[in-house]
Design goal:
The protein is α/β, with parallel strands linked by helices and 325 residues long. The protein is built from ten helices and nine strands.
Length: 325
Amino acid sequence: MAKTRTGRTCIGISGWTYAGWRGVFYPEGLARKRELAYAGSRMNTIEINGSFYSLQRPTSYRAWYEAVPDDFVFAVKGSRFITHMKKLKDVDDALANFLASGVLRLADKLGPVLWQFPERMKFDEGRFADFLARLPRTHAEASILARGHDARLDGRAWTEPEHEGPIRHAFEVRHPGFLSPAFVDLLAAHNAAFVFADTAGKWPYAEDVTGDFVYVRLHGAEELYASGYSDEQLDWWAARIREWRCGCHPGDAACVAPALRMRPPAATCLSTLTTTPRCTRPLTRCAWPSGCADRRRDAERGGRAVRGLPSAFDPRLRPSVRDGG
C-alpha cells in the first residue's frame, strides 16, 4: 500500500514583542531579550514584522537566528516601501536593499518572504508578472541581487549566502480584483503562495494552492485584529491544515481556479496567528495533530458551519463580476 505523502506544519505568531503578553503568555519576570527564545521553544515559526516597516540589520537577523531551535522557520515580511509606496514600480534598488539588510543571515531558518499589499491596490497583471520575475528563488540569486544595493547600505549590508536552499514567496492581497484566474495562474507559474487570510470578512478570501507550500494567516474570526479563536474554530482550521499538508483540498474549499486542485502535495503548511496582544488564549493551542489517518472524518468536520470562520457557502468568498473590478 502506498504511503500518504505529508509535508511539514509550522504554527506560530506574527511577532513576539507584545507588552500585553507579559505575565500571560510570557512568564512574569522574563527578560525582554529572552522573549523570542521563549516563544521559539513553544512554536516552530514566527513572522519578522519589523522588516515591513524599515530595513533591519544583519546583526539583528543573526541574533534572531541564534535565539531559536535548529528546526525553526522565520517568515520575513517584505518591505512596505516596495508594496505600499513604490507599488512594485521601479523596485530594483529597493529590492536589493531589502535583501542586503541581513535577510540572508537567517540561512537555513529563512522561510517564505511575505508580500502584503494594500486594500486599494488593484491587480495589474503586467506589474505583478514583472515583480514575480525579479524575485530571487534561491539564496544564491538573492545574494547576487543584494550586491546591487545603493549607498544607504554601505558598511551595513550582508550579501553573502549562508545556505544553498530555495527562497519562497507568499502574496497577501486585499482588493477583490485579485480573485482572478489570471492572478492565480501567475502565482502558480512562479510557485508563489496565495495567502489564505482570515480577516473576519473584511477582505476577499480564497483557498487556491498555487505553490509547493500553503500560508495561512489568522487575523481574527469575528473582529479584525481583535477577536481570538475558540477551540471549535481552531479545530476547524486544524482539519483544513491536515488536508493541505497531505496534498488534499477540503471538500468545501473556496477556489478561484478549481483546476489547481490537481497540484502536487504541499511541502509545508505555515500558519500564523495575527490577532492583537490581548488575544493570548489561542497561543496554548499550537500542538496540532500530526497524523493523516482521519483525513476523511476531519474533512467532514471541516465542512460544518462554525461561527466566525470562512465557509465555501458564504457569498463573500465567491468571485463575481462586481468583485472583479
